[in-house]
Protein: Glyoxylase-like metal-dependent hydrolase (Beta-lactamase superfamily II)
Organism: Humibacillus xanthopallidus
Amino acid sequence: MAPAPVVALVPGIWRIPLVRDFVNGFILRDDDGQVTLVDMGLKPSGPKVIAALAAIGSAPSEVTRLVLTHAHPDHAGGAAHVAAATGRGFDIHASDAAYAREGSSPPRDRSFLLGRIFDLLSRGQDFTPVPVERELADGDVLPVVGGLRVVHTPGHSPGHISLLHEPTRLLITGDAIFNVRRLRWPVRAFCTDFAMTKRTAAVLGELDYDLAAFTHGPELRDHPREAIRGFLARERLA
C-alpha cells in the first residue's frame, strides 16, 4: 500500500513524507486558505510537495509563503520546482540566503575527514538556485497559522533554523536533531560546525511544546520535550 501523501500533526498543519519518514516537508494552512510550505526535499520531491497540496484540498495558487530551514540539497532540492509551480520565492535565514541563491551547500566541517572530502569533491552547485524573498532572523514571528517563530539553531549550516508554532505547541526541529530509529545528531560531516550544532540544539530543550516534528524521521507525540531534554542531557555527559 502506498504511503499517505500527508500526515496530520495538529489542526492546520501536516507533515509531508517525501522519502517515507526519512525526509519530510510540512504544510501549514490558515483558516482563510492561505498555505505555507516548509522544506521541499530532494530534487525529485518537488512534484510530491505539489501533490500533497492536492491531498489536503489546496492548490499551488493558494501558497503565499515558502520556507527553507537551511540550504542543503535534501531540503532545497525540490525548491525550484515548487517556486515555479507557486510563483513564490523563499524565506530563509540571512546566513543561508546566499547559498540558496547560488544553489550551493555551505562548507562542511573540515575537522572530519569526510567533511574535507565532501568539500574537495564539491563542484559548487548542489541544487537548482532558488529565489529568496525574505531573509529571516532569530525571533522573527511569521504570520502563519497564528504565529510561527523562527529559532536560529546554527551549526548544521550557518543559517539553520528550527520553527516553533506556539498556538498549537508544535516544534519543527529541522536538522538540529534527527529522529531516525531514535533521537540522534545529524551526520557530523554534513554540518558546517558540528560542535556548534550540539551547543545550539540546547535551546530546543528550553522551549515549550507538546509535539516535536523532524525533517528526518517521524514526529514524537508522547512527551517529546522530555525526550529531547533527556537526549541533550545524555549527550552532554557522553
In short: The CA atoms of residues 46 and 78 lie 4 Å apart. The chain has a mean pLDDT of 94. Residues 224-237 form the longest helix (14 residues). The first strand starts at residue 7 and ends at 10.
